[in-house]
Design a protein that fits this description.
Elements lengths: L13 H16 L3 H9 L5 H15 L4 E8 L2 E8 L4 E9 L2 E10 L5 H31 L24 H12 L10 E4 L2
Antiparallel strand pairs: 1-2, 1-4, 3-4, 3-5
Helix pairs in contact: 2-3, 2-4, 3-4
Length: about 200
């Protein structure tokens, strides 16, 4: 028989419950961009939707003319682009714990400052786990739709993911716990350059 730990039963803890309620209120109403970004990204596993949210939120802090994302997901090339580029560009290779999750580029007419690049990196650090989860979701969805013997797909992969309710809370909790240990600066191989 398994050793099941005993759960200490204590009476109601109104102070802790009140603190939890206050923390949730502050989190859900916070105007700070990182909190808003993570809150919005946690609402979907659709990679295209996440990239749209990321572009929206980064543009509130660091203006850019164009954002491009490119990644090979489930043996298919996924490309997301918004806007028209300029001559100044910064590129990021999105890596987390030794795994690659695509390249992300921003471009505009004027050079990015060091402070702006640091701001982008902070936001990418908050976005890398949700992006990873969306990429894994696409891979799992494609694997479920592929015959393992023949390699034939049962139906073409649509990049618009089905409702997020189809993902078990256990997977979300495990992914979230894994991300929390990832730290903030495991991201980019940043290149800032001027294209000719």
């Amino acid at each position: 028989m398994k050793n099941i730990p005993k759960i200490n039963k204590s009476g109601p803890q109104p102070q802790k419950l009140a603190a939890l309620k206050q923390a949730h209120r502050e989190w859900s109403e916070s105007p700070d961009v990182l909190t808003r970004l993570t809150r919005r990204l946690s609402t979907t596993l659709n990679l295209e939707t996440q990239l749209g949210i990321l572009a929206e939120e980064i543009s509130t802090v660091v203006p850019f003319d164009c954002m491009n994302y490119r990644h090979q997901v489930a043996a298919r090339e996924f490309v997301y682009a918004t806007g028209m580029g300029g001559p100044h560009r910064c590129d990021y290779r999105l890596n987390l714990k030794g795994s690659f999750y695509g390249t992300l580029s921003f471009s505009r007419r004027q050079k990015f400052t060091e402070q702006e690049l640091e701001g982008v990196e902070l936001m990418l650090a908050a976005a890398i786990c949700p992006i990873r989860n969306a990429c894994l979701y696409i891979s799992i969805e494609q694997a479920a739709l592929t015959d393992s013997l023949t390699g034939n797909s049962f139906m073409p992969l649509a990049w618009a993911a089905p409702t997020d309710a189809t993902i078990g809370s256990t997977l979300k909790a495990a992914s979230t716990a894994h991300c929390l240990s990832a730290g903030g600066r495991n991201l980019p191989n940043r290149n800032s350059k001027v294209s000719s």
